[in-house]
Amino acid sequence: MAKRLYVYSKMFVFMLADAALINVSVYLALYFRFNTPHIPAHDVQAYMHVAVWFTLLSIAIFWLTRIYHRMWRYANARDGQVLIFSVSASALVLWALLFVTHTAHYSRAVLFLYALFGVALVGGWRFLLRSFYDVNWIAHPRAKERVLIVGAGKAGQLVAQELARHPEVGVAVGFLDDDLAKVGMRIASLKVLGTTPEIRTVIRDHQIGQVLLAMPSVSGRILRPLVEQCRDMGVQVRTLPALNQMIGGQVSVHQIRDVQIEDLLQREPSLINLGEIASYVTGRVVLVTGAGGTIGAELVRQIAPFAPQAIVLLGLDETAIFEIDREMRQRFPEVSAIPVVADLRDGERMRRVFSQYHPQVVFHAAAHKHVPLMELQPEEVIDNNVAGLWQLVDLCHRSRVETFVFISSDKAVNPTSVYGATKRAGELLVNVYNAHSPTRYITVRFGNVLGSRGSVIPIFQQQIAQGGPVTVTHPDMVRYFMTVTEACQLVIQAGAMGQGGEIFVLDMGDPIRILDLANNLIRLSGLKPGVDIDIMFTGIRPGEKLYEEVLTAEDQTRATQHERIFIHNETERGSRETLAAMEALINRLGTRTADELKDLLQRVVPEYKPEHNAQIIRPASLQAQGHRAAHHP
Description:
This protein is an alpha/beta fold. The model is unreliable at about 245-250 and about 610-633 (pLDDT under 50). About 45% of the residues lie in helices and about 15% in strands. The chain has 3 domains: about 1-135, no CATH class; about 145-260, Rossmann fold; about 275-620, Rossmann fold (3-Layer(aba) Sandwich), CATH 3.40.50. The chain contains 21 helices and 22 strands. The two termini are about 60 Å apart. The strands form 5 sheets. The chain has a 9-stranded mixed beta sheet with strand order 10-9-8-11-12-13-18-22-21, with helices on both faces. A 7-stranded mixed beta sheet has the order 3-4-2-1-5-6-7, sandwiched between helices.
């Protein structure tokens, strides 16, 4: 409450100042029009007659154009354009008031001069205020480290301004930018010293101690060589968060961070069709299962801006649901977030949830996912990933849910693990229901998500923090990775594109060797692989493959209108016989051994080969990579 009062009182002060300045602008316009200190009394009296209304209407225009809602400390060209438009509109108001009241007829020169002085005074005092903020009034110890900013765009300019206000963080020396037209020019008082291919020369000639990458949306393909060159020269490299993670689109010294593995692996931002997404999410009750997990929580964050009627946050992990619910209340207070702690396998509980909240769109992100762990207890993963899914799918059918999006995995392709086989069984189950239900049932497949709970990167980071060794299962092990942000964007987009029954496959980019991932993480920690941190090979675990199937091969998929979303050419669809085999499997849970359950699961998913573990021939494109890996720990 106190904060809101402060904001409104600050706006009121701005309004009083503007009211005084626009009146001064009118008198200055009349003065310079007649070029004499004795302005005709008729013109002065005419203005006095409409001054109150003119002032109030001008302030109203400023309010409607959001002049008082802008942070002029960070003003840009767009803010200046809005200010010019607002003052020009108030000039038209002045002309209209004089015309309607028949008090006077000011020439166009007076109106033009008023607009000129209005922009100069109303905008000028804001510029002075910005300049006041930019001056560093507090004495800070001067930093010895010289900083080179890579990227002379908007983010780079904001970084330069922040460093000028906080010299203790670093002294900006200049920019690098690939736009040749900028080279040699000055931006934010700093010279553009060259292009990125010249980074080694610039670092050496200008004694750079730190490189700051001000390219928050650039792909890892561009970042990797820059980081490698800086690392080879012993220069620290830091960066900014992604643009959508910056508070209010502004840069703060507290947001500058070390380069992370996600930065080196991220691709160009995906283009999504906002209109398509809004058409099936806006105004709907959306239920997300596994809402406390990495995928589920990110789905919730990305659905919220599309103004759903409500988002039901369903999950079994009480703490995780508490955290995402708290985040939603802080970041999206206008969205109704409903936390629900429930087990998908509890049929009666789930029926009550559907009866109470009537979800119209369901994203199913909940699943047991850890391959080696689930291989030891197939009963649990079958019960959760198959029986629990079946119950949810059937409930969506009976509740006439509009859209159901099932999140599958690349491990469902020719599965060698119980987890992969249960995901494939889920795809078949969803297809059966799609053929006999008004609900649109859609499946989306993708691979590993960077940084998800229990995934390889957090494990490696923990091992590095403990001094090693970093454990890699096999020197030739490769996986497909994508960031959680991109994965969830594409999942939501696929849900908009699907007519029902499709298996959408997300383009995962190029496969990444786990050994290279480990080496990069060690180097990003400022250490040397094999010197400071050892790498230990532990052997392929039960259910694992050396590589996952390439899901975007032309003979397996067909393209869609989105360049990173494909449709799998399904050769085998679920049938009544599939459901019968699935029911037999579920009915025998608790009465069969692990091997017997795997045999029954193979009847549901014939391509499941539990005995097919490490004996996998690598693709020819990876043969050379594998050879190098074996000789470079």
